[in-house]
Amino acid sequence: MKTVLFLFSLLVFGFNINAQNFKLSGTVTQNQLQLENALVYAKGTSYSTQTDQTGYYELELPSGKYQIVFAFGNTKTIEVNLNESKTLDVDLSKAVESLEEVSVQAVRVDADSPITHSNFSKTEIAKRNLGQDIPILMKFLPSVVSTSDAGNGVGYTSIRVRGSDNSRVNVTINGIPYNDQESQGTFWVNLQDFASSTENIQLQRGVGTSTNGSGAFGASLNILTDKYSKEAYAEYNTSYGSFNTWRNNVKFSTGLLNDHFEVSGRLSKIESDGYVDRATSDLKSYFLQANYIDENTLIKALVFGGTEVTYQSWFGVDRETLETDRTFNPAGQFTDENGNTQFYDNEVDDYAQDHYQLHWNQSFDQNWSSNLSLNYTYGRGFFEQFVEDADLAFHEIGSVEVGNESIETSDLIRRLWLDNDYFVVNANVNYTDDEWDFTSGAFYSYYDGDHFGEVIWSRFAGNSLIRDRYYNGNGTKQEFTTFAKATWRIDDQWQVYGDLQGRFINYETSGLTSDKVNLLVDESYEFFNPKAGLTYRVNTNHQLYFSYGRSHREPRRQDFENGIDTAERLDDFELGWRFQTANSNINTNIYYMKFDDQLVLSGALDDVGNPIRETSGKSYRLGLEVEGQFKLSKQWSLQPNIALSTNKNQDFVAPLNGELINLGDTNISFSPEIVAGNQLSFQPIPEFQINFLSKYVGEQYMGNIDSEASKLDDFFVNDLNLVYRFKNISVFDEIVLTGLINNVFDAEYESNGFFFFFESADENGNPTTVEGAGFYPQAGINVLFGASFRF
């Protein structure tokens, strides 16, 4: 707690409030010609000018960081930290940088929007990118809690934001939804080494701006893939560390060919034994893109995907085992004919996923641009498991007669399959000038997923054949979304934001579930999601904003299996203050999220490790978030953040001891009241940087009945990150050495778990409630070391 208060005090008192005005000037050219009447303005403000007949411009601005836009038939945006008068000359002859952003423009916000957000740049990603998944790399952002089934950040990982689970964080890649359409989950294990092909990430907390796919109930996360490269390069990255964790990849770019074409790509392989017993990962992936670039046109064709084979480690361990054998994994456990305990060696998740995207980004003049995107995703794979004494009839295998005995059960191996196709068409148009920023668009998607199970081996198989199916099911989902949003910069101080979205969904299922229960769904949902906000610039350093956003979310497949067909609704209110000088940056916001029929995690898991949800009726989340960036000196910088919240189910009813009891207000599951982070950086010389990163997560309940048995203890974890760069060494343009010591103080902690309770009877036949919990232990001190060679 002292650490948290220390971080908070740094945020409140660690900045300088002095500011003054400086001049930004220069010449704008295109193909060596000086441009007259080119528009120059600071994005998000009313500061603007035009070039004279010699292409010269001048802007007088208060000190601070700005996105300066240069527009003349095409636009180019340059980030400037103005702490002194500067000269900035700009060539617009190949100004396609802004066109790279058009693909995500419809789902992103800029620095002055009344939307609570954080940006995660390529530079920040690269510091710690040694093979761990994106949720682990993002764990130091505000209100973010990350976890790993295998305990070391490789394999199955997930992220929670403001207490909302992985399935309630909307994820898009270049504006295309990534969340699975039926489960609504984000399976990061299928984005193997994707951080190596990521240009930047924007995390919008709360409802955020209108986005594509299922509504954002905790946050939306927008990923932009690699930009094109003007220069040719080749790159080899390798890393090795604890638990026999290997990451190798190769990257390349042809650079611009004939000033118009570029092809780039990546091949990756990651292997790890995992911290937990047998929690192995074998991950292979690829990323290939081709670009056509013209003054007003950018066409990107991308193909990316890969395969993952991960040994299951979602079972966790109970509290007693946690004390005696933290790494124990019961997955695949069975008893052989001699009574010995064995573990099936292929209790794995085996899945492949391929994505095909085409983006056409077009600039028509200095104000108008558009984007058209097409996507096809093909996924297929299975969960394989060894089942002892399985019911043969359940698996569509007849009883087997052996002598005079009729065999009704048998050990067998089965696979639970998912085979799906996902199609998307997405289009939007944008108008921008120094006063207005308007975007409108439409989105359509179609999903078709087959669910089936097959037996690949049985000790007693009767007349069955290998891969005979014992259940079949199907789910289709169609979605149409249209939206329009605009920002009006009224004057130097006031800015108004409005956003209207309509979502129309149809979901149909047929056939059986994996439990062989008929699932017949034909439900349609129509959602209207308005959003509005106001930004007020108090002076050159201070800015206030307020926003309101509504979001709806349809049930997922598992909810229908549990008899839930009610949509959720969220009304999100955000009030924020931003402070900025040349050396300091603070973002503070208060949020109130009011839910109707929120589907919260019950704490329990189904038979294949998926979290089960329950309707909590009315509930709310109220919190304060603060993040800052402080340049303490030329060598030292600090980036602390803290989130304080209260998260309550209102009048929550649960079956306890044989009767339904109204428990009043209870804590929402997996919602810690305190989440804090910090990054302390020291750069003694330009080539060498040391980063000390800290994360504190307060205690939380894993269920909604405030049971002490469901408590997950708080934890405080620290990582040490070292980066050293060598320039122009022999044949290499650059060599980068990276070290990462995770959990440097060897803390024992659990970042996730599960909780269940059910009604039973005591020895006298009286009703009683039985409770139980499981925990996912994370690795103690562990290391990763990497080297990057760029030609």
Describe this structure in words.
With 791 residues, this protein is mainly β. It folds into 2 domains: 1-93, Immunoglobulin-like (Sandwich); 225-679 and 688-790, Maltoporin, Chain A. 5% of the residues lie in helices and 59% in strands. It contains 6 helices and 51 strands. It has a 22-stranded antiparallel beta barrel. A hairpin with a 2-residue loop joins strand 40 and strand 41. The longest helix has 12 residues, at 2-13. The radius of gyration is 27 Å and the shape is globular. It starts with a helix and ends with a strand.
Please provide a brief summary of the model:
The protein has 791 residues and is mainly beta. It contains six helices and 51 strands. The chain has a 22-stranded antiparallel β-barrel. Strands 1, 2, 5, 8 and 9 form a five-stranded mixed sheet that branches. The protein has a five-stranded mixed sheet with strand order 10-15-16-13-14.
Task: Give the SSE layout.
Elements: H1 2-13, E1 21-30, E2 33-34, E3 39-42, E4 48-50, E5 56-62, E6 64-71, E7 75-82, E8 86-87, E9 90-91, H2 97-105, E10 117-121, H3 122-128, H4 134-137, E11 144-148, E12 157-161, E13 169-173, E14 176-177, E15 198-205, E16 219-225, E17 233-241, E18 245-253, E19 261-272, E20 281-293, E21 297-311, H5 319-324, E22 333-335, E23 341-343, E24 348-363, E25 368-391, E26 400-402, E27 405-407, E28 409-432, E29 436-458, E30 468-489, E31 494-511, E32 521-537, E33 542-553, H6 557-561, E34 568-580, E35 584-596, E36 599-605, E37 611-615, E38 618-631, E39 636-649, E40 653-656, E41 659-662, E42 666-667, E43 674-685, E44 688-697, E45 700-701, E46 711-712, E47 715-729, E48 732-742, E49 750-761, E50 767-777, E51 782-790
Parallel strand pairs: 1-8, 1-9, 13-16
Antiparallel strand pairs: 1-2, 1-5, 3-4, 3-6, 6-7, 10-15, 11-12, 13-14, 15-16, 17-18, 17-51, 18-19, 19-20, 20-21, 21-24, 22-23, 24-25, 25-28, 26-27, 28-29, 29-30, 30-31, 31-32, 32-33, 33-34, 34-35, 35-38, 36-37, 38-39, 39-42, 39-43, 40-41, 43-44, 44-47, 45-46, 47-48, 48-51, 49-50
